[in-house]
Amino acid sequence: MADELEPLGRSSEMKANNHVVIIGGGPGGLAAAKTLARKGVSVTIIDENPDLGGQYYRRRTKGTTELVGDYRVDGTHLISSVKKLGCTILTDSYVWGISNDKRSLLVENSLLGKSTRVNFDFLIVASGGHEIQYPFTNWQSTKVMTPGMLSRLVTVDAIEPNGRRAILVGSGPFLLAVTSHLIDSGVVVDGVFELTRPYRLTVFSMLAVFFPAKCAQFLHYRFKLFSNGVKLTQGSRLRSVQDSYDGITATFDKRSGGEQVVVESQLLGVGYGFKPNSEVLEILNVERGESTSFGHFYPRVDRYGRTSQQNVFAIGEVSGIEGFKSAMVGGVLSGQRILRDIKGVKGFASMYVTLVHYLRSIYEELFAKFLKKLYRIDLEDFPLLDPEVLLCRCEGVYASELDGVLSQCESDMAYVKAETRIGMGLCQGRMCGTALGIIVKKKYPKSISPGFSIRIPFRPVAIGSIIALESEENRDYIDG
Amino acid sequence: MSLEYGASSSEIREVTQLVVNGKSYDACVGESLLGFLFQNGISSTSVNLVTKEVRFAFCGMGMCSECEMIDENGSILRVCQTSIRRNMTLTSRGI
């Protein structure tokens, strides 16, 4: 299999051949690949999952499909059309670094434990996002997971409900979507606990006027919750979870009053929206867009996804959390833009496609802005952590270990990391990084929202892969 | 280079022995490993080396590494990204 990868590397003497590399085979990446490959452009898609589809179009395994049928058939069609168009597809492969000349990616195949370089002339970063966490007592329980994981268990993995019960905690419209999946699959939802207070009559009226289609979707979810007796609680924050014989007991603070709410269930899904997987963009020194309250990195992009770096595009969640439809629109637009750059494609059909998607992109962005205001989380919404709360899951660092370090760090996350090992584990701060940023920001309100700085390798990589690459003639791929 | 699920369509319902931490289960070849473990109440994919707590898959998308297990060849695999192969033997990482 390693031999198959070799031809991808284009030696530096060769003339540019307009090869497009897409990081992420989700809805955005697939839409871009389809747009480009159908016009004969050479495309490589890199995806860390076993199959294309990303999270939204995650494939059922072959065995599960045979047993229970396909899931999200439109995704199946999109993936098979991309495969038929002859794109080079590297699955089970993740990008962990970039060469110094910023023209090739260092990609590890996680099954083989081997790395290869993938050269690009155009790069589309469609690497998606992951769920934001904020720790609470015993969040390391085996019965606590992300809403995304709960969702894939009942949809992609098609588990039997077997009378299971779950509660959903966090923030954002995704909680409602997951609740809907759980209800459909037969899992009993014991409650949905939204941190903010977005569900008000005024909001629904505004939605109805400006975004009627989206309003219908909201009302559909709301009605589904109501008709299944699922209670939606707003403004409640999760304090702790205790394991019980066959489930969990979750304790919530009421945000306004002092009284606590205790809920029993079996599983708990928790997530506070999404953080973009922005490592590649940060390493490429792409210019930052507007700053966000959590200090997450969003690139400054135009409507086509073009960043400040020439020939580097960012689409989908990594360029702004706007959902899969917006990602697909962005994929088409970035594809059209690259076609125009390399082939000079103008033509009526192409202009029409671009115009339609351009308008759709504006609509999706307006709606995303509306949602961002609606589900706005303030730093005060998150409590200070009790000493016994595990902060870094990987390295087993408790909140108590921040004492002293926090007052000396002067808002420098690298200092906290070096002193405590927070963020040094296998997930590289993906689960706890936002939380630590919030804690540091609470301590230093005037600081620019901090985050972990990105260093190569930004994903765990087999040491043999690094040695193998280092023995190549270019030894300069790691900074410094 | 898509994943080989280890089963052609004619053998789809082929049942295999799956051994998890010394206990044997009947499983379907090509089925989602995460789904199987969850369904069968196996909630220990790894043991944290520092806290010694049992952990289970958390993110379900290959990011958190809490679902890493060791297979019969000694390779680390992430349960959430794996289909069941024939005669798999899995051990929790960190045991």
How would you characterize this protein structure?
The complex is a heterodimer of chains A (480) and B (95). With 480 residues, chain A is an alpha/beta fold. Helix content of chain A is 34%, strand content 20%. In chain A, strands 3-2-1-7-18 form a 5-stranded parallel β-sheet, with helices on one face. A 5-stranded parallel β-sheet of chain A has the order 9-16-10-11-12, with helices on one face. In chain A, helix 10 packs antiparallel against helix 11 (348-374). Chain B is mainly beta and 95 residues long. The model of chain B is unreliable at 1-11 (pLDDT under 50). Chain B has one helix at residues 33-39; strands at 15-20, 23-28, 46-47, 54-55, 68-70, 76-78, 88-92. The chains are: A alpha/beta (480), B mainly beta (95). At the A-B interface, helix 3, strand 9 and helix 5 of A face helix 1 and strand 4 of B.
The helix-strand sequence of chain B is EEHEEEEE
Shape designation of chain A: globular
CATH architecture of the largest domain in chain A: 3-Layer(bba) Sandwich
Mean pLDDT, all residues of chain A? 91
Poorly predicted residue ranges of chain B: 1-11
What is the tally of beta strands of chain B? Answer: 7
Say which CATH homologous superfamily of the largest domain in chain A is assigned: FAD/NAD(P)-binding domain
Query: Helical amount among residues of chain B, as a percent range?
Result: under 10%
Which features would summarize this protein structure in a list?
heterodimer; A: 480 residues; alpha/beta; FAD/NAD(P)-binding domain; 3 domains; 5-stranded parallel sheet; globular; disordered N terminus; B: 95 residues; mainly beta; Ubiquitin-like (UB roll); 1 helix; 7 strands
